Amino acid sequence: MRNIFTLLFVSFACTVFARDFRLSKVSKEELMEKEHPLDPSADAAILYKKGNTHFKIDNDNWVIITEVEVRLKVYTKKGYKYGNVEVPYYYKRVNGESVTFEEASTYNLVNGEIEKTSLKKGDDHTDEVSSTRRVKKIMLQDVKEGSVIEYKYVVKSPYIHSFPDWYFQEKIPVNYIEYTVNIPQLFTYNRILNPYYELKEDAEVNRKSLYARSAKITFQEIKQTYSIENLPAFKTESYIDNPDNYRLYVKHELASFRDLDEKETKYSNNWESVAKTLYDDDDFGSEIKKTSYFKDDIDALINGVNDNDKKLTIVFNYVKERMSWNEKHGLYCSDGVKKAYDERSGNCAEINLMLTAMLRYAGLNANPVVLSTKDNGLATYASIYSYDFVICAVEVNDKQILLDATEPFSSPDMLPVRDLNASGWLLRDNNTWKEVKLNTEKLSKEMVFVSAQLSADGTVSGKMNCKYSDYDAMMYKMYFDNIPNDKHMDELESSMGDIEISDLEYKADTENEAQVSYNFKSVGHAEVVGDMIYLSPLLFHTETENSFNEEKRLYSLDFVYPSQVRYNFVFAIPEGYAIESMPEATRLSSVDGITDFTFRLSSSGNQIQVLCISTQNYSTVGPEYYDSIKEMEGLTLKKQAEKIVLKKI
């Protein structure tokens, strides 16, 4: 997403108190402010935020230092959460990043005087997110409505090829934000902007000196400062993959580096270098080479099996059934594949690198694939620090079969939803690589068959059979597979309303399918008025609200995967009634066939047949299609709201 497009920044006229951006210079005016002048509904606001990233030499090695200062105003009780500060960083047992909070305080106005509560030494703590990710946390004390909080932290990183990303926009308003980068001319970075608003930019070149190898080195340093005032809170939209993909940001991709010996190394889009780095690492490449811990088990499983497709299925299912994912992301093994195998639990790298090794042992061309999950956001350049997950790919001719054994309900070429995030990178041990598309084009289906009897009092009772395929089946299994029938029925009744369910049967014994059937009774979907009955053709499956409710769409729409819902209803009308009218048939399609809708009714004797098919043909579409999709959704809701009218004869 390089300079994708720029919207005209609308400057807000706002009279505010004089600003002093130095830490500990909180004013009474800031503490007395009752609401944000531009967004009175805001629970909190960033009064100012400053970041400064620069380079230094530590033990003759370059490191990147990022200093961040924040002053934040709390307006409501919901804003208290901003007193809990979290800073993520990349962790390695040797030579990883570090985070230090240098100052953190809460300010309140007490009897007309400013009272300061400082964070005590040792009040920070660290949480492990994955084998390679940590979060440093603090909880500021004495946060109240009206408080102003301040903090400063410093991130030290040895990873010159992983320049920190900087986000300007937050979920709350930002009065002023400034970010300065100081880059020695020994480094060349490609800048990546996502400017939905216009940033002010200032640049200058300075002469800088540092000491390395007991000698003084002098070089030119480029100083670039970005700033913006009165930035509104980021507002998410429906059907959005990850808000961080759309917030105003600046990122940097290392293109080349000239070391102290004048040797230049090129990095930009260098997946060969990434592959080599990973395969040379003991916690990645070495783990794929290990086979002794599983050899006997796999030999027993594939003995006499010559078909590669069968071998793949046997090994994949074995890993899924044996291993339990500990919910940890990361590209590296934490405790190693052997220990994970013995304990039957591990992180994503341990499970899927183990799978890769087993498939190779079985004679298949298997390789790891690194990707960035939806929660991690879109990765914009070739760096292992932008990616957080490992899966496996088996190459057959010019195609690849993608596998993720961390999800029990996944199958070959059907990854968990979290993995469906643009592209991943297949990395071979000869340092070659291949881009792999992750999003699926296969249509998942939900098919609902209903046979029902309508009574003269408006009660509808009958039998419902639902069949789910592919991703719809996976999602249904993930939610319902391990719960008892009574809770299953309670959940369905709660989601559909005005319905009683009995005799539920659930089947999920095929890989990419799930089925559920039950008897039902409904009292709220047919209205009796005098001699007339007004029946909702789709009963409790009728949609009533348009999920596309933004006036204007800025961001792409993420439907996750293509899907189709097909309803086939057969109603037996009560004796003594005849059909007065039925909704007319219709077929709708949005621009370029993004979505389709078919609605058709017919009758034969005392029966009414209803057919409704709604199809979303793409997993992701651009915002230019939003108006067409929104308009069509309105038309489909209007059609679903029409009634079958019966008259007593």
Distinctive features:
649 residues; alpha+beta; Immunoglobulin-like; C8orf32 fold; 3 domains; eight-stranded mixed β-sheet; DUF3857; DUF3857 domain-containing protein
Describe this structure in words.
Helix 5 packs antiparallel against helix 7. This protein has an 8-stranded mixed sheet with strand order 5-4-8-2-1-10-13-12. Strands 25-26-24-23-30-34-33-32 form an 8-stranded mixed sheet. The chain is built from 10 helices and 36 strands. The longest helix is centred in the C-terminal third of the chain and has 16 residues, at 626-641. With 649 residues, the protein is α+β, with helices and mostly antiparallel strands. The chain folds into 3 domains: 32-266, Sandwich (Immunoglobulin-like), CATH 2.60.40; 271-437, Roll (C8orf32 fold); 444-648, Jelly Rolls, CATH 2.60.120.
What is the straight-line distance between the termini? 65 Å
In total, the number of domains comes to 3
| CATH T-level topology of the largest domain | Immunoglobulin-like
Q: What is the C-alpha radius of gyration, as a whole number of Å?
A: 30 Å
Assign the CATH class of the largest domain: Mainly Beta
Q: Name the average pLDDT.
A: 92
Strand segment tally: 36
State the helicity in percent bands. 10-25%
User: Which strand-content bin applies to the residues?
Assistant: 35-45%
Tally of helical segments: 10
Largest sheet geometry: 8 strands, mixed
Provide the structure class: alpha+beta
Low-pLDDT regions:
1-17
List the strand order in the largest sheet: 5-4-8-2-1-10-13-12
Shape: globular
Architecture per CATH nomenclature, i.e. the level-2 architecture of the largest domain = Sandwich
